[in-house]
Amino acid sequence: MSGYYTTNIGFQLFEAALGIPADMLIGVQIDYNIRMANQDKSFTEPLAQAAML
To answer: CA-CA distance, 29 to 19, in Å (whole number)?
Structure first.
């Protein structure tokens, strides 16, 4: 759980410094993570094979 709190504090610092709501920053990070996961064949190919079962 310490990673969660560190990330949460990090987003709060960005929110305070940039004046951008933390939920917007988290949404941008989630979108990026999804794009990176979709581009990573070592991640998507096993999922596609499992879906065929």
So the answer is: 17
The count of structural domains within the chain is 1
DSSP states of 1-37:
-HHHHHHHHHHHHHHHHH---HHHHHHHHHHHHHHHH
Distance from C-alpha of 31 to C-alpha of 25, rounded to nearest angstrom: 10
The secondary structure element, H or E, covering residue 51 is helix 41-52
1 pLDDT tier (thresholds 50, 70, 90): very low
Instruction: Write the single-letter amino acid at 3.
Output: G
pLDDT for 7 equals: 61
**Cα 41 to chain center, whole Å?**
18
